[in-house]
């Protein structure tokens, strides 16, 4: 399962997180920290002690005094403090990292930092009652995921390298240097963001994706296409983009956590360096960048990944800006520090030893086999960090082996250099083609432009140049984000090397105009007044809304209605089943709708297959409370023309009146079905009992004269066989009397 | 003329206004068109007509409860791009 720090931690304000974590300590623990810091404060309350500790450690001089006596074997913890992100590290990751940086007593080192208040233990489900609880935390607190949070004053205050610079594998003679623009991940996030705008992703209970959505992302040709300038492939671009999109605040689960939605956020207004930093933190805090596969066995060398990633970057941060480090050397160095390297010693080179038989051959000894680089390391450095623009790669001029170094952006992120300047701006970076395709060259793609294009164009391809397309749906999406047609055309004009083709601008205007033709309101509220005058009076009192007719006002949210000046004569919620409000009169074809119980749907539905009847309310005021409709053959025929089927009318009437459809209406439905009614002269044999009629229908001598049975005691008889039937019946002892 | 109930709260000096009777319809979903012929065009489509309760006015079509998503999808299928305004209940 993907392990990642909880988003609420990443989003939390660092001061608050540190303070909140200290606030969960008991006063005894806080007094212990106070004593370690040799604070002379009178505060006895927990809040007072927290404030005193926080203030003391904010002072660099007092901080330096507090750590003066820390022994050398515990100092690696102090050196790591500036790298602790504001939202903290998992305790186990920090312990692993201390081992990777050569700390011989990682638990003691962390215990020292906690005891001095330089970092706080974030354990929301637990209360730190005594200083001994820090020792318990080191041993794992009943499986609780514990996070250590730095004091805000020490986070990102770099004061020197954690390691000594490596002595082996360092070179300055390289060739084929490759640098990445660092935009690839941002473009992938933009593609996913747009796909999520089109159709949100459903989340499982553990915040993963359902198989259908996983396959949707996996099969998306743009999202899953190989990355531009790819040195090492990364698995499942969709999942990676989702991880990064969440970290940028562009993808957020809704309130109940069941659906992941795209939000506009503020990310697109940020500089590329800021976005690189946020994505970098997200990549480093996640244990696994691929979705859970259900296979619990970790890949070889994938243990302690967060710590190993940090260890790699910290080693690179010790290099001079113009020095490069061999990837093989880096890998060997990390393997040597692997806490459980017994599990990985089986990984050996392809040629562990060589046996030479016969004459010595110089050629046979040439070029020793190049050691294999651990897949996670090449994936991390040559895949993720290279695509993020954090490292440069090259070939060692001596042995052609891969070497890496931090880019200026990488050095800035690791505190080893200043923030690099923004890349030069290329405003005219688009080509808008008459076929509605937009070609965007990468070097001019700023986060703002990527966000703008993603909001109203559809991504079609990524590469040296990205391809986008303007479609009715994409323009519609832009309108949903609040852009106007002219604004969209303006963005294209501003960044296009040539004028936007007039046909394209016309299309955008036409598609946008089409949207204005139709407005669809869902779950709106309608105020229905008894008269136009009352509606006008309500408007005069400040009720705002869209007039549907002279008596009805549409308001988009019920909370907008101030009902203080109104008397509610009725209220209908259309999410509930429809109310019974129709009653038929004795003739069955005249139906009255009780206005006190009716809703807006009844009149509309009836109008499709019934005719309204004017009521005389002057002489019969009772009629004012009813709407009257009449079912006629013409109204039913009109309904049939518009797809209203007899069964629908039966179901509707049952729902609205609680009764079966009147027979007189059924009669007309029969007529409207166009089945002919036969009118014919026939001879009818009336029989005194049904059993005799059954006999006549069955007996071989008589059944040939029977046309059909009309009823229990009546049979229709063929006119040309009357004489023969009479004779036969007489022979059987039945007398026939003619009428 | 019957005496209306009046507001008892508020500024005692301000004239008291009669309370206006009103019927409140909540969670109503409807389509408002810019032209009458567009309403007719939509009602003439058999599949769409089945999802609509009918015509409230020349320009307003009522959507059957629970059919909102299907109506949006069908409108898009037939090349319309409605502006969707979601109320608080949705």
Write a structural description.
The complex is a heterodimer of chains A (739) and B (90). With 739 residues, chain A is α+β, with helices and mostly antiparallel strands. A 5-stranded antiparallel sheet of chain A has the order 4-9-11-10-5. A 4-stranded antiparallel sheet of chain A has the order 12-13-15-14. Chain A has a 4-stranded antiparallel sheet with strand order 20-21-23-22. In chain A, helix 10 (184-198) crosses helix 12 (237-247) and helix 20 (485-495) packs antiparallel against helix 21. Chain A is elongated and about 130 Å long. The termini of chain B are far apart. With 90 residues, chain B is α+β, with helices and mostly antiparallel strands. The chains are: A alpha+beta (739), B alpha+beta (90). Chains A and B meet through helix 19, helix 21, strand 16, helix 22 and strand 19 of A and strand 1, helix 2, strand 2, strand 3 and helix 3 of B.
